[in-house]
Amino acid sequence: MNTPITVYGQPSCQPCRLVQRRLDRDQVPYDYVDLTQHPDKLEQLRDAGMTQTPIIETPTDRWSGLDPDRLNRAIEHAQADMATTAQPSVTGPDLDRT
């Protein structure tokens, strides 16, 4: 399954940790990219006007900075997507028994 949310951050970023904690609490899968380890991505994001971490990217949106309302919407969308792609569990009698 593709992760619906990517968080770009840096180790010293408290808002980045808050976003990660929230995603973990709500059991929303995400990718974390440490921008100190990916200077090429950092430059690309800066060129796009993203100057503050965390930078959150979803399939339909991207923003920089801690924005609780947008994060809430992203989590709701991710959870809805996960619910529609979840595999149904099948239960029933054990057919191998004789």
TrEMBL record:
GO biological process: cell redox homeostasis
Species whose genome carries this gene: Micrococcus cohnii
Lineage summary: Bacteria, Bacillati, Actinomycetota, Actinomycetes, Micrococcales
GO molecular function, one term: electron transfer activity
Region described as Disordered: spans on this chain: 78-98
Record family assignment: Belongs to the ArsC family.
PROSITE patterns assigned to the protein according to its UniProt record, in alphabetical order: ARSC, GLUTAREDOXIN_2
Highest taxon of source: Bacteria
Protein name (database record): Glutaredoxin-like protein NrdH
Glutaredoxin domain: residues covered: 5-55
